[in-house]
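Side project, low priority. Logging it here so it doesn't get lost.
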Amino acid sequence: MLDPSHLSALSAVLRNGSFERAAQELGLTQSAVSQRMRALEEQVGAPLVIRAQPCRATEAGQRMFRHAEEMRLLEQEVRRDLGLIEPPASGTSAWPTVRLAVNADSLATWFIPAMAAIPEMLFDLVVDDQDHSADWLKRGEVRAAISSSPDPVQGCDCRPLGALRYLATASPAFKARWFGHDGVSATTLAMAPVLTFNAKDRLQRQWAEMAAGAPVSGPSHWLPSSTAFVEAAVAGLGWGMNPEVLAKAAITDGRLVPLLADKPFDVPLYWHVSRSVERLLQPVTRSVMAAARSVLHPLS
């Protein structure tokens, strides 16, 4: 049987990235944490942690870490059922950590309130494009994910959240310079500088195909930040697809204008959660669904 104190040591090391910080969290000496880790690795018969800066889990270590966090979720549920709702004496070090995959624009617009509504739980977020976030679930590296795919990952359930609405926006001066004479067309879109989040970001090309009949884009600035995306469009660096909720204030005061006001682009989002922890993550699921309803548009 695995020793819970050994599992706690593994979790602390991987959450904090070092034996020293893990020892501080657990109120132990660094030597004691090392001894517990060695004992666990001897029992499992495989190395669990790559001792680097920061420490990283081996494949076996990642599996053990998920097991440890699921046990902490079970403990939290039992405590809640028994009415023991106050944090334990050891404080936040006893709270379970849930690893989730979230797209950057959801994180910037509506997901943080969902996390804030969950007491006694820590979140470890992986930020990835909504078209790729489900891959983290397929590899077993997260317990739930926000994805644009309606197809459930094997071993997971899928629930619709709504659609995050995007607008193709630019500064008034940029729009006048690049689209003022010939309008938005495949030709003008191929020449105008565009903003791109990262290599996985296909929103600009998808909107161009919808608006102009061709998935074209001009020379690109690369900006992996949701808030910087809006700021860059305001500054006139290029045009880009910004979430309506993020761009609303800048549009209202005239710092941004839609390229085509009648052509928004809706990205459907779905909540995928592993069945192995679905019951334990019910509070998270309820909070995510509620937060999504406050911002996202209903799916058609």
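Brief comment: The mean pLDDT is 91.
Revisit when time allows.
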